[in-house]
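Q: Here's a chain of 129 amino acids. Please give me its 3D structure as tokens.
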Amino acid sequence: MSGGRRKDEPPQPHLANGAPKGSAWSKALRSDAAWEDKDEFLDVIYWFRQIIAVVLGVIWGVVPLKGFVGIAVFCLINAGILYLYFSSFQQIDEEDYGGTWELTKEGFMTSFALFMVVWIIFYTAIHYD
């Protein structure tokens, strides 16, 4: 079989431009991705926030940040990174998703709760006397 597809391989779905359709994560890491399904892009935003929350929670717990400063810096970093991601990297039209505010707050409260839990656990485990 030279150049042909194996019989047991399923056909690959393709987009209108002929590129193979990939997973949401492979599209999330490409700046030229086409997001036909709005919920798929919102899921990517949601899960990026959760990843950011865990990473920042560990850092805040290890570095012993306390109080309002830690919370404020988390909010700024979380919102800032995601805003740069969807406006500069993905270059999507925010109005298709209900505006910039809707994308900025997508999954924010759950990521904030996760951040707080991770921050408290790491801070307590490392710095509790």
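Q: Can you summarize the key feature?
A: The radius of gyration is 19 Å.
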